[in-house]
Write a structure and sequence with these properties.
The complex is a heterodimer of chains A (179) and B (154).
Chain A lengths: L12 H5 L4 H11 L9 H9 L3 H14 L2 E8 L1 H4 L3 E7 L3 H12 L4 E6 L11 E7 L2 H14 L7 E12 L9
Antiparallel strand pairs in A: 2-4, 2-5, 3-4
Chain B lengths: L4 H9 L10 H9 L3 H13 L3 E8 L1 H4 L1 E7 L6 H10 L3 E7 L5 E7 L2 H15 L3 E4 L3 E5 L7 H4 L1
Antiparallel strand pairs in B: 2-4, 2-5, 3-4
Helix pairs in contact in B: 2-3
The chains are: A alpha+beta (179), B alpha+beta (154).
Chain lengths: 179, 154
């Protein structure tokens, strides 16, 4: 869709040269965790910082997208700044045999932005299904939740709504060791 | 924060599928009908206004390394202090206050599970507070690149 005309052949480059530096790729991972440079030729800039060539950089990024290591490549929006100030984590205690089916249903609901299963930690934490609603107001989020509960007959399911009232940190994951 | 129409278009079109070619911002500018320089300046401005955290890849957690959601129950009057201590621990990339007895929720990342557990053990000893460790069992939908509802924001 937004691919450049010249991008199609890129994925064969690494195979042809055969000797893309592993250290260079690791440095590239680390650089990319901080975002693409805002220069006219950002992949060239990354190449200079990592000791790879511009084509190797582009090829690696293309391959990582195909392999799923990179799941999304684009602008990472800070929703809170834009006005999505009501962020609710809604947690549910769902019988284990039903959690997967319900998780899949919730995943397709447009206003649910994240949905995953996590372990209970009894007695403090009885909840095993987590979903996130990013909304523009608390009233709106609670109305969305009410409609979800009504539509899927969740009236009798134990749940809790944890609005976040402050972000102390929000940034991309940094997995490559910085030692 | 109010954004002009072009900034909105930039966000609408490029939360995913960023072009991979020598001049990606030129390619983006053609799709938006503005200049390459304008694209770069707008991205700089969006970043400096903290509307965009970065332009770049979101790595798949399960392939990129280890990560875990954790929560602690901090005394309300010490919450800022405890949050600052959590932020000083290695690999903390999200940290939010939430309305619950467990009132601080954070995500910690590390190159592997072993170092992740080590860092969490150390933090737990330092904080001396009850901590929940909630690794992901299965993700059903994990993508924050949802379409922005500009109407609801205005």
């Amino acid at each position: 869709m937004n691919q450049c005309a010249s991008a199609d052949h890129l994925h064969v480059v690494a195979g042809e040269s055969g000797v893309v530096s592993a250290w260079g790729l690791l440095r590239l991972r680390k650089q990319l965790e901080q975002g693409l440079p805002l220069t006219a030729r950002p992949y060239q800039t990354l190449a200079e910082r990592t000791g790879l060539s511009e084509r190797e950089v582009m090829s690696a990024i293309t391959q990582w997208q195909e392999q799923g290591l990179i799941k999304r490549f684009g602008l990472v929006v800070k929703h809170r700044t834009l006005g999505y100030t009501a962020n609710a984590m809604v947690v549910w205690n769902i019988p284990d045999e039903q959690v997967q089916a319900l998780g899949k249903i919730m995943a397709d609901i447009p206003f649910i932005t994240l949905c995953y299963q996590r372990p209970r930690q009894l007695p403090d934490w009885p909840y095993n299904l987590f979903c996130m609603i990013h909304g523009t107001s608390r009233v709106r989020v609670l109305a969305q939740l009410d409609s979800l509960i009504a539509e899927h007959n969740l009236q009798n399911v134990q749940h809790s709504v944890l609005f976040s009232n402050k972000a102390y940190r929000q940034r991309g994951g940094r997995y490559v060791s910085h030692d | 924060m109010r954004l002009d129409h072009t900034d909105q278009q930039l966000i609408n079109h490029f939360q995913r599928h960023l072009p991979v070619c020598e001049r990606p911002y030129l390619e983006m500018s053609r799709q938006l009908g503005i200049s390459e320089k304008d694209v770069i300046e707008r991205l700089q401005s969006l970043q400096s206004r903290d509307v965009v955290g970065r332009v770049g890849p979101v790595f798949e957690h399960s392939q990129a390394g280890a990560s875990l959601l954790a929560a602690v129950a901090a005394p309300e009057e010490q919450i800022d202090l405890v949050a600052a201590r959590i932020n000083r621990a290695p690999g903390v990339n999200h940290n939010y206050a939430r309305e619950h007895t467990y009132n601080l929720w954070f995500v910690m990342t590390a190159p592997d599970n072993e170092s992740l557990e080590e860092h969490l053990d150390k933090l737990e000893q330092e904080l001396r507070l009850p901590m929940l460790r909630l690794p992901m069992i299965e993700g059903y939908h994990i993508d924050l690149g949802f379409d922005i509802d500009w109407g609801a924001l205005s």
